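#struct-help
A.M.: can someone run this one for me? Single chain, 184 residues.
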Amino acid sequence: MNPHSENEPDEGVVKYSNIHEDHPIADYLLPQNEFYETRSLLYKNSWIGETPDGVGYGNLSTLAFEDQFIITGTQTGQLVTLEPKHLSLVRDWDLAKHVVRSTGETPPSSEAISHGTIYDSLKTVRAIIHIHHETFWKSLLQKYAPIVSPYGSSELAHEIVEKQQQLATQGIFALLNLIFYLFA
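D.P.: on it. Structure tokens below:
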């Protein structure tokens, strides 16, 4: 099953400007084993992966500091296991300018600005899981109003800000194309 909408031809495309420094992330900033174990479980269940046409989907992130986070790198969905070189430290993001500043051996996921906006809007969130799963997605749409903005867009980030109270209560949201986010 292809977990993507046919109406989303640019899935996995980074839509923000990225100022990226290509060098390893400092060891003390890297996530604990639980991060890698969670990502492996998500991959094993095909909630993170790669479409037949080579487009990666799904990602996860965790706070490194109050104002910085580690996120899986762009187009790493096909990897069975991740190593530190497949992660990116997002040091700063500017929603108004739609810019992300990052460091790592792999640039950040196309959803980095959405993750940053969630961390800014929902201060109790410490980790975000973004997966694709059709059955779970359909059940979410029966319970919650979906986020309607396109993935990775500035519109999505603004919609997250507008709906932050609702999202804080739910702890989860669905987009209109088989994508949803869980907060921890």
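A.M.: thanks! Residues 33-44 form the longest helix (12 residues).
D.P.: also worth noting: The CA atoms of residues 111 and 152 lie 5 Å apart.
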